[in-house]
From TrEMBL:
Signal peptide: none annotated. This is Enterochelin esterase-like enzyme. Gene3D superfamilies: alpha/beta hydrolase. It comes from the Bacteria. It holds the Pfam family Esterase.
Amino acid sequence: MTDERYLKRTIVKETVASRYLPEQGRNLRIFLPPGYNELLSYPVVYCQDGEDFFNFGRIATTSTQLILDEGLEPFIIVGVDVDKKQRTAEYSPDGERFAAYTAFFAEELVPFIEERFAARRDPASRILAGDSLGGTVSLHLALNYPHLFTKVISLSGAFYAYSQSLIANETDLSWLSIYMIVGLQETAYETDRGVYDFVALNRNAKALLESKQATFSYEEKDGKHQWGFWQKEVGQALCYFIEVE
C-alpha cells in the first residue's frame, strides 16, 4: 500500500507562451517538493513527455518518497507536455520542429520557470530527463545549450544515426554528465521510423560519449521499451544527480 504522505503533494499546472512554437502555448505540470519555500532555491528536473512522466512514470510519488524517506535534497520537477503527433518532429534532431522546440525550451521555458519559482539558475542545478526520443532531445538540448544544461537522464534513448553523427562531431564533452539505461528486451522495437535495436543504439552512443570524455552511468538490465520498465528506474536516475542533504 502506498504511504498517504507520498500522495499529499503540490502539482501546479501552467501554460507557457511561445514565439517559436506555432500553437498558443505549451502546457506544463510542475511538482513542488514537500516544504517548498519561495525563500529557498531548488534544483529542477525538466522532463520531456511531461504527462507520461507524471502519469506512467509516477515521478511525483517517487520524488516525494525519496525526499521524505531517503533524505534527498528537495527539488522541483517540470513536466513539459507534447502533442504525440508532433513528437518526432520536435524531439528528433533532424525533425522539422526540432530547432523551434529547443529554442522554446532554452529561451522561453527555462526563464519562465526561473522567474516564477524558486529555481536555481546554474547549469549544475538543471537536469534534463526523457524516455526514447525524449532522451535524445534532452541530450541534444545539452549539446546545443551547454551554458544552460550539463546533466541528462536518458531512459532507452533513441540515438539514431543522425543523432550519433552529431555526438561524433563534438570535440570535448568533459562538461557533460549523463545517466543512461536501456532494456535488454529492446533489441527489435518498432518505431515510426522502422524497427531498431535500442541496445545497439545505446551501446554506440555510450562509446561515442566515452570517446569525448563525457561522464556517465550506463546500465543494461531486463526491460522492454515501455513505462513498465522506466518507472522502476526513475528513482535511481534521480538519485544519480540529486544529492542527499
